[in-house]
From TrEMBL, chains A, B:
Taxonomic superkingdom: Bacteria
InterPro entries associated with the record: DGOK, DGOK_C, DGOK_N
Listed transmembrane segments: none
Gene3D superfamilies noted in UniProt: 2-keto-3-deoxy-galactonokinase, C-terminal domain (3.30.420.310), 2-keto-3-deoxy-galactonokinase, substrate binding domain (3.30.420.300)
CDD domains: ASKHA_NBD_KDGal-kinase (cd24012)
Originating organism: Marinobacter halodurans
Protein name per its UniProtKB record: 2-dehydro-3-deoxygalactonokinase
């Protein structure tokens, strides 16, 4: 990457989540110029450390990009981030997000910076629910002239199931499946074999099937241990089986609660969306998948454009 | 405890589980003379360390009790214990357990020692399932002339739901609810508030109710976070709420799968059985509770008597 290439940058789009920091440098027309990423999620930054960490992480770019705006989404806008940005309440139009941007000054006067608000709504259980960052993926993935009802699922540490009407988020439900998967495979009796292991398609499918039987999730989880103990399952396939149990239970409950009337749109890491697509298929539910990283970049660019942010040097 | 008191000991009954070691010294008539316990479960003992640890833990008693037999139940008979003792296959009569005792020699010739076999069977999901130690609690809790079908539940790290016919264990299902509870409250996003906190009856009940709504367990778990985040729940009550969600989901699934035709018999720590009794009541299911520690001692004594073990000095 030459200095001349970098100087074409018109927007720094940042996805700053709990575990990771990802930044994309975009040209005025939305073309991707460069990318940076670091395992520097907000949980790994001291309360007062955000300006210094941001300056450091963007140091390959900033000297070449005076005045270029930085647009940030994700947990950086939470109470544990740089500044707590109020949630927009659902039903909320994705087109209203631009109006909720909050100006911040972690980079002083050199580069203006903004944080995207998250969304707050009610879930299928009529529980309060929240998201920060996923709204940008939805924005980036959505057809500009979307109409009617659409169900989206964004798998991850805290998976989101979202009901959209046109470009309006009606409601959404979080499932902490990914978070629970890590905790259960590393910190319960299953840790002896499920802590390691590669993905295994057959064991995953076996988990999807098992969880459809009676007994409940807490019972099915224990079968990972007994099947290995009694020689019915190879220990190295137990983590894939566990993944099948958890994703299978999540998808079963959500399909039952939401009853999608058309394809579910999966947005996320392709390694995850392929698993959810299979689980959905077992429930007679078709789906289509969209890459999550591309959706974030595209969503931030759209939002910045709407807010009149990108500027050439 | 005087040496003269100890000398009346006729049986050392040991419950050696994953996390804890508990020993009871019994007179020939079954009266309790003394108790010992230590946080020295089999996970805290090196593979070759069992004889030395047992000698050390029983050192207050052994010099006074040459020849007195030691009867051990629990995970000490697993592949990670002193010796792997084969499971009895269900349906198995509790009266057959005595025939499966395995003689071991961790104390050399000074004191004969025996390990109780566990049980192996099929669960409500037709999964293979196993228990080690709970069979002794069932034996100790059971009416000697029990007839007909009876459903028992033994809450704990790995709760067991057992279908008995007379004195025969027909089948049983393990739910790793307690194990998952520890992992989820300490190693997920819930850890910030759910890792501590006292029991709170109202929050527990709120969890029992919440889990009856649509959305599935992985969704309901996240509501512990959002309710606290949005000020709808005091952070210090989140662990009790989480407990209500998990126990509520377990009880719902098990009552649905087993459909008990009469009172469920709860055997365990009274602080836990009272929670399960409440969860069962919410599902219109009556129960009665029996203290688990007393059941273990009583069960080991019965078993020893049947095997002709207790002997006076």
């Amino acid at each position: 990457m030459t200095a001349a290439d970098l100087k074409a940058g018109a927007l720094i789009a940042v996805d700053w989540g709990t575990s990771n920091f990802r930044a994309t440098l975009l040209a005025a027309d939305g073309a991707v110029i460069d990318r940076l990423q670091a395992p520097k999620g907000i949980l790994h930054v001291e309360r007062d450390g955000f300006p210094a960490v941001l300056t450091e992480l963007l140091s390959p770019w900033l000297p070449h990009l005076p005045g270029v705006p930085v647009l940030m989404a994700g947990m950086i806008g939470s109470a544990d981030g740089l500044v707590e940005v109020p949630y927009l309440a659902c039903p909320a139009s994705l087109d209203d997000i631009a109006d909720g941007l909050v100006r911040v000054t972690p980079l002083g006067e050199a580069n203006p910076a903004y944080i995207v608000p998250g969304l707050r709504g009610q879930s299928v259980a009529d529980s309060p629910d929240v998201m920060r960052g996923e709204e940008i993926q939805i924005l980036g993935a959505l057809d500009p002239d979307a109409r009617g009802e659409q169900i989206l699922c964004l798998p991850g540490t805290h998976a989101k199931w979202v009901r959209l009407n046109g470009r309006t988020v009606q409601s959404f439900s979080t499932c902490m499946t990914g978070d629970a998967y890590s905790a259960l495979r590393q910190h319960t009796i299953l840790r002896r074999f499920a802590a390691g292991g590669e993905h295994d398609a057959k064991a995953f499918r076996r988990g999807l099937e098992r969880v459809r039987r009676p007994g409940g999730l807490m019972h099915h989880l224990f079968s990972a241990r007994t099947e290995v103990l009694l020689g019915d399952m190879l220990p190295e396939t137990a983590s894939a089986y566990l993944s099948g149990l958890l994703i299978g239970d999540e998808v079963r409950a959500m399909v039952e609660a939401i009853q999608p009337q058309s394809d579910v749109t999966l947005i996320g890491d392709p390694r995850l969306t392929v698993l959810y697509a299979e689980a959905l298929e077992r429930h007679g539910q078709s789906s289509r998948s969209i890459d999550g990283d591309q959706a974030v970049t595209h969503g931030l660019y759209q939002l910045a454009t709407r807010a009149g942010l990108p500027q050439s040097n």
